[in-house]
Specification:
Layout: E1 5-10, H1 18-27, E2 31-38, H2 42-48, H3 58-65, E3 70-76, H4 80-88, H5 93-99, E4 115-117, H6 121-131, H7 143-168, H8 173-183
Antiparallel strand pairs: 1-3, 1-4, 2-3
Subcellular location: Cytoplasm, Cytoskeleton, Flagellum axoneme
Keywords: Cell projection, Cilium, Cytoplasm, Cytoskeleton, Developmental protein, Differentiation, Flagellum, Hydrolase, Kinase, Spermatogenesis, Transferase
Family: Belongs to the NDK family.
Length: 201
């Protein structure tokens, strides 16, 4: 069953409210499909907000979005894009305080509006791919998009596995290759064998 996805961003100035915001997201019927915390450079911000390029607020927007870490999430539910936009209210926090006072609690002005949501399906697809390049966005790509995905994410690993299979010549090549792919899956989380310092709160 196809479930719509949208991109949500908790912006740098309210990242300390992440837990609170995550609770609101889950209570509103969304599933958090993926989450990552990252810090974008001004160049990355420019690429993400490429449609806003040339507008007066663009330099301030890229400076604001690159000012500290942010949290990007893929949210899923029925009509996720429109429902998340409705939950956010107007992008200008000053307007939102008048029209959606219960939803405008995190934003401070017309620029620092705390949270981001994709505008439509095309934007959601582009923004999810930007923040989560390894994710397949449904509907599953076909044609050239499918070939590009396979060439970038599947073929390199499969080629290594088949090369190793030819060298090893195992008795049961199917089982051997299946085991090799499980062990060498590039998307498998890697365990750290050294102490990891916690992020400061």
């Amino acid at each position: 069953i196809y479930v719509e996805k949208t991109l949500a961003i908790i912006k740098p100035d309210i990242i300390d409210k992440e837990e609170e915001i995550r609770d609101i997201i889950l209570r509103s019927g969304f599933t958090i499909v993926q989450r990552r915390k990252l810090q974008l450079s001004p160049e990355h911000c420019s690429n993400f907000y490429v449609e806003q390029y040339g507008k007066m607020f663009f330099p301030n927007l890229t400076a604001y979005m690159s000012s500290g870490p942010l949290v990007a999430m893929i949210l899923a539910r029925h009509k996720a894009i429109s429902y998340w936009k409705e939950l956010l209210g107007p992008s200008n926090s000053l307007v939102a305080k008048e029209t959606h006072p219960d939803r405008a609690i995190y934003g401070t002005d017309d620029l620092r509006n705390a949270l981001h949501g994709s505008n439509d399906f095309a934007a959601a697809e582009r923004e999810i791919r930007f923040m989560f390049p390894e994710v397949i966005v449904e509907p599953i790509p076909v044609g050239q998009a499918a070939k590009d995905y396979l060439n970038l994410y599947v073929t390199p690993t499969l080629l290594k596995g088949l090369t190793e299979l030819c060298k090893q010549k195992p008795a049961d090549p199917y089982i051997w290759l299946a085991d090799w792919l499980l062990k060498n899956n590039p998307n498998k989380p890697k365990l750290c064998h050294h102490p990891v310092t916690e992020e400061p709160y």
